[in-house]
Amino acid sequence: MGRVAIFASIITVSTAVSATSALSDDAVDMQDYYAAECSQCHGRAARGMASFPSLRGKTAELLAERLESYRAGEAVGPNSMLMFPIAKDLSDEMIENLSAYIAENFG
Amino acid sequence: MKRRMTALPASRLLASVAALAMTATSALGADGPELSYETVLTDLDNPWDMAFLPDGTMFYTEKCLGLSVLLPSGEVNALLGMPEGEGYASTADDLFCEGQAGMMGVAIDPDFEDNRRIYVYSTSNMTAPGTNRVMRLVVNEDLTEVSDRTDLIDSIPYKPEASDHPFGGPGAHNGGRLRFNPGDGYLYVTTGDTHNGEVPQSPTLLGGKVLRIDTDGNAAPDNNAPEGFDPRIYAYGFRNVQGIAFRPGDNRPIIAEHGPWHSDEITALEPGGNGGWDPRPNMAGREDCPDNYCGYSPNQMEGMDAAERAAYMPMTDLETYPDAMPPAWTNNGLSQGMSSAVFLTGDHWGAWDGRMLVGLMGIGFGGTPVGQRIDVVDLSDDGLSVNSVIEMPLPMDSGRFRSLVQGPDGALYAAIDEGDIYRLTPN
């Protein structure tokens, strides 16, 4: 997704979040990120669709492990080429926060 | 099994911003009507297709569950399930889902009132290593059961094993749309190449084709396939055709096709025509390719310029096949997962009366914007180009638009993989 698209999506979700929840700043950031980068394949509720896997019921540890593999360019499953560019620039902290967000909200 | 339909409120402000976010290749349509929507069904499992009776009764498929019907009363009857489906009136033990494969298209016989027949496209393991089938079913009077299954086509290829390709799992590229042409009354069946380089140009393998048959499964008499081809083949040389619609006026079949990291295509078909997709290795200047399929080459796992990809592995190879049917539109050279197609008809659609819609599921790879949207296409009279393509301003959030159907009420019904079927109407 291009920068403009990401930015616009974040504006969209931020508006929704500020109006409907009282999550912490970190949680809101992860909600924004998930909506902009993850939901188009894994779904708004993370239950997966088409040939994209569900993220529901996964532990934060497993999700972090997967993201670290993708960041290292190690394939996990047939759709890995879509995850490589997304994970490539994620920091350790970002992986930890995103994994925790997904596990907590879609566990 | 009965389930109640659920209606959700609109969120117009958010949707309009989200639509802007996804706009990258076409202008938002200002000439069309303002739209409203309601959610007809939600929380479905990968709804794949819908088909309507004149009173609004809606048959629909869920890829890994089965066939159901939504009655005008709002009740849902689950008719024919896969083994994983619960609560269905009957179960077909041979039907299964894997990756992109499963229960896909559904169509209603033009003479349904008399014969109660419907048609479903699904993956089956009745014969190893699995195939895609076109099944004919009979629906009982109170719409609670189907019976008399007859498999009209039982040998459409299925991909049984993983390969070294993007989306390389089993079950890739099945096509799967079923539509009757109101002009000739025949059933059109779209299929996919199953990540197999030999399939699209093969005269006998039924993948990568558009088939045209009667309601007993016989070839239409004037399909005009080349000599030596299976007579059921109406057009061939395709990658993964998930959209087909018939242009009002002349009923010409128009397909929508999902491109390989480049070039989603809309193409007006000719009987016996070649779509020009030929992903075999060691031809047209290509060398060996992973697992004998060049469909994502070169550089299949990393982003690169879409035009360079198109030059190496064209969707429509007009150099090798000069008589191939040229696309009317290529989504500006990008692949964003073009899927279903439908023509809108009716004065209530205003400037969009007679326009073709295509749904895009969205694929963000290699710098291509995700692009989940519905495009409104004004085809030229000769079907060789477009006069305009505009993006439909959606009144709801966008999604992976898998199926678009116009209902008997004139409304547009749109299914997204996430599990919703929406009803869109012009204000």
Molecular structure report:
With 107 residues, chain A is mostly helical. Chain A has a single domain, classed as Cytochrome c-like domain (Cytochrome Bc1 Complex, Chain D, domain 2, Orthogonal Bundle), CATH 1.10.760.10. Chain A is built from 5 helices and no strands. Chain A has helices at 3-20, 25-42, 60-71, 80-87, 92-106. The model of chain A is unreliable at 1-23 (pLDDT under 50). Chain B is mainly β and 427 residues long. In chain B, the strands form 6 sheets. In chain B, strands 1, 4, 5, 6, 7 and 8 form a 6-stranded mixed β-sheet that branches. In chain B, strands 2-24-23-22-21 form a 5-stranded mixed β-sheet. Chain B has a 5-stranded mixed β-sheet with strand order 13-14-15-16-20, with no helix packed on it. In chain B, a hairpin with a 6-residue loop joins strand 10 (117-124) and strand 11 (131-139). Chain B is globular. The A-B interface holds A 1-2, 4-9, 11-12, 15-16, 40, 43-45, 47, 49-51, 77-82, 84-85 and B 13-14, 17-18, 20-22, 24, 46, 99-100, 162, 165-169, 171-172, 300-303, 361-367, 369-370, 372, 397, 400, 417-419.
Notable features of this structure?
heterodimer; A: 107 residues; mainly alpha; Cytochrome Bc1 Complex, Chain D, domain 2; 5 helices; disordered N terminus; B: 427 residues; mainly beta; Neuraminidase; six-stranded mixed sheet; five-stranded mixed sheet
